[in-house]
Amino acid sequence: MLKSLLFALLLTCLSALAADKPNILIIFADDLGYGDIGVHGGKIIPTPNIDALAASGVRCTSGYVTCPYCSPSRAGMLTGRAQTRFGHEFNPHVGKEAELGLPLDQRTIANELHDVGYATSLIGKWHQGFDKPHHPNSRGFDEFFGFLVGGHNYAQHPDADPEFGSGHSHNMIYRGDKLQKLDGFLTDIFTDEAISFMDRNKQKPWMLYLAYNAVHTPLEISPSIASRIPAGVTDPNRRGYLGLLLGLDDAIGRLTAHLKATGADKNTLVLFVSDNGGAGRKPYLAYNTGVNTPLRGDKGQTLEGGIRVPFFASWPGKLPAGTTYDRPVSTLDFLPTACELAGAKQADGVEGVNLLPYLSGANKSAPHATLSWRFGPQKAIRQGDWKLTDARDFDTKTQSGWRLYDLSKDISEAHDLSAQFPDKKAELIKLWEEWDSHNIAPKWHGSITEDPTAPGPKPAVKKKSK
Fold it and tell me: Which of 185, 295, 391, 403 is the most buried (most CB within 10 A)?
């Protein structure tokens, strides 16, 4: 009896402490082209809601993900550690499921916030493993509504057959571990679910990881949006991509309008990024026509177009609206930022920083002395305005070798300065090698000398019973 009373008292105290803590909304787009949104110069279609979200807070002009590929990028954000530290270097594919996915010894942002009284939810794409121990509900998320693999079809019909493949599933949206029969377009369905989650948790702080699959393939067009795609765009792939982008922009508008209407915006930190750059190169396996201009490169490359992404932080009254922040920041920083706000402890080995003092202007120093990347044979390091990279050329299927760029003058990485600044090149190589010495070998998908971006054979798709 005494133990029960003490436990009840502890829960009451945790609830009281949590009541005044801010909500945290993390929005991930999927394969969004850097140059396709209005705030980055996109002019083909309007993106007023994404642009307004950027204008409502701080737009990080040098915002990076930890990998130019879907699953590893998400693993880095979820843990606050470079995914190469724990072997999550490539996308997991169906196989030895007990060995595939975010390693079970890694704690997630959901683990940390759940433990201090937050309601936690993942809506959308997981892509961190398939079996029960790797399932979102086993990784700190109270609720899960979405799909488990790397891609999913958008148009949902309640009588459609569910199909499951290594990298893509059809009509297989789960609530927890229960398959759902749905009707509608997935971007809208995920937005409905997000608003429902916010409304159901008004009495306690919440953390929502809203991982849209837009604008990833397949490039389906919602009937409600088809008429808004410019008639002058005739390429069917580009039309599909733009339709998904219009739907994503609508979704952001619905979310921000709901936060304002309920007054929750004043107590909610919103973080918006893409998981990597747009996949704008044929015959790339997930080709979606995404445009990364003025950046060079695409999804799957350690050039800027693969790792520098739209990156916004908005919190009315806490972060200055209509501002930009130019120093390099990373999705590694999401977990420590959230933990600081929530009063949560961080697991050992977290590499990110609390972004708020930097974005608010309270801390004038640089958040990171360097940021580094490894993706198979590809490598990169950024120090201030200097960027050193050894990237994969999709056309020749060869490595570029180490090349040095001054991003303050050459954001498009067009002019290799290795010959002019050999000492800087040598310094950055040494720093990258020191960083890499703390990484481990990939836990799946071969060695670091293989090319993980090369299209492989199409996996078998198996039908699941309804």
Answer: 391
Specify whether domain 371-436 bears CATH 3.30.160.620.
no
**Spans in the chain with pLDDT lower than 50:** 9, 11-12, 14-17, 447, 449-450, 453-466
Q: How do residues 268-280 score in pLDDT, each as one tens digit?
A: 999 999 999 999 9
Residue 406's H or E segment, with its range, is strand 403-406
For the chain, how many residues are written? 466
Question: Positive or negative, the Cα torsion across 131, 207, 343, 351?
Answer: positive
Q: Is 67 a residue of the active site?
A: no
pTM above 0.85, yes or no: yes
Which of 40, 127, 152, 170 is catalytic? The answer is 127
**What mean pLDDT value characterizes the chain?**
92
Model pLDDT for residues 95-104, shown as the tens digit of each residue: 788 889 999 9
Domain extent listing, the chain: 21-369, 371-436
Q: What are the tokens at 188?
A: 């809208």
127 is catalytic: yes
Superfamily of 21-369 according to CATH: Alkaline Phosphatase, subunit A (3.40.720.10)
**Which residue of the set 60, 67, 70, 339 is catalytic?**
70
pLDDT digits (tens, 9 = 90+) for 182-199: 999 999 999 999 999 999
